[in-house]
Write a structure and sequence with these properties.
alpha+beta; five-stranded mixed β-sheet; Heat Shock Protein 90
């Protein structure tokens, strides 16, 4: 087991070294020059048998190394030429040089790195045939054939492995980028929808300010001129604020797409009982509303946030835990409202994306009013959505 681990680590280091070398801009020229020179030196040093000419091993040694010049742009052509030269050298009873063997391994690695793995496998087939064919040859030729096949096959496999790892990293990066883009798009759309709903709430109160100021100015007899001017300024300021809000709302609608116009008031805590009744009628498991603490008045924006969070949490419970009982709890504290929605279902589905759009929208709503939200598996079983929302300070 230790030997296999060591061998795997060695192959990984060799593959990493090959990847670094092949990423150098001028490596084909440098490798071809160095290996061709070494091949000529090896052929000259080894010499030839009596009756043989030295020109053949010299020429074939060059053809087994110089095609590395083409390895970057034409790796398949370079591999074919180097393979032919190497096999011709062996068939003519001349041993391949070490430089030629290195060139052969390098070009096979490049083919596996840049081309389809099936093509790299096809270029290994001549060495498979050479390893099978020489049954009547001397033993050292059979050993040489197996050695060549091992070197070529290992180089092609390392190149293909590096290619697959690079593709896997690229796909992972693309998936992460796509998921981030989708979440950002969903967040922008959710913020725009929240802003539209808050606009309806705030616009009503600003309109009432303008109306009340104008009514007070016109219906109060004997009001000093300065007081009338101040009330008129209050009404003008309120109307200007409404105009600015409507302009901003138009920009948000362009970002998030058209919204269906509605004249119905935005929901709040008064409509929460109706929402609970609808959930109780739609789900057989039962839905309860639990109120704790001293009930305090909440800002309209906070009331809308509570309603939308409960609405989304009940929808998720029906979708992922059909038939489960759901408890909706409002816990009033001195400085905050704790909202909990818990079901007794199986918990979050395994296939659910963490931070899905529904949960993202609930978090955006909580942050918009200065609160925070947490969602995840509940202690014991089920799923829990918990939010802490601010309550207005009571005057002392």
């Amino acid at each position: 087991m230790a030997g296999m681990s060591w061998a795997g680590g060695a192959l990984h280091r060799v593959g990493a070294l090959g990847q670094r070398v092949t990423e150098m801009p001028d490596w084909p020229l440098l490798a071809a020059a160095v290996l061709a020179t070494l091949s000529l030196g090896e052929a000259t040093a080894v010499g030839v048998q009596p009756g043989q000419k030295i020109a053949l091993p010299l020429v074939l040694g060059l053809f087994a190394t110089l095609p590395l010049l083409l390895a970057r742009r034409y790796p398949v052509a370079a591999a074919i030429v180097i393979t032919a030269a190497t096999l011709l050298l062996v068939v003519s009873h001349h041993p391949p040089t070490i430089a030629g063997t290195l060139a052969m391994a390098a070009v096979q690695y490049v083919v596996g790195r840049q081309r389809d793995p099936r093509l790299a496998g096809a270029l290994v087939l001549p060495y498979v045939g050479f390893a099978i064919a020489p049954f009547g040859w001397a033993v050292h030729y059979r050993v040489l054939a197996v050695l060549l096949l091992t070197v070529v096959g290992a180089a092609a496999a390392l190149g293909s492995s590096a290619r697959m790892r690079a593709e896997a990293r690229s796909h992972d990066a693309s998936r992460r980028e796509m998921r981030t883009t989708l979440l950002e798009y969903a967040a922008r759309g959710e913020r725009a929808r929240i802003a539209r709903e808050l606009h309806d709430v705030v616009a009503h109160h600003i309109s009432m300010i303008a109306v009340q100021a104008e009514t007070a100015r016109l219906t109060t007899p004997g009001m000093p001129e300065e007081g009338a001017q101040r009330l008129s300024a209050i009404g003008d300021t309120a109307r200007t604020a409404l105009t600015e809000m409507r302009r901003l709302l138009g920009v948000l609608r362009e970002d998030a797409g058209p919204a269906e116009p509605t004249r119905a008031p935005q929901p709040g805590l008064e409509q929460l009982n109706e929402l609970i009744d609808e959930a109780r009628a739609a789900a057989p498991g039962g839905t309860r509303l639990i109120v704790r603490g001293h009930v305090q008045p909440l800002d309209p924006g906070v009331q809308l946030t509570v309603y939308r969070i409960v609405q989304e949490a009940l929808t998720n419970a029906r979708r992922h835990a059909p038939g489960a009982a759901v408890d909706v709890e409002l816990d009033y504290r001195a400085d905050r409202l704790l909202l909990r929605v818990r079901d007794n279902g199986p918990g979050a589905p395994e296939t659910a994306e963490p931070g899905g759009h529904g949960l993202l929208g609930m978090r955006e709503r909580a942050l918009m009013v200065g609160g925070e939200l947490w969602a995840g598996p509940a202690p014991g079983s089920g799923f829990l959505v918990e939010a802490a929302l601010p309550v207005p300070e009571t005057p002392s």
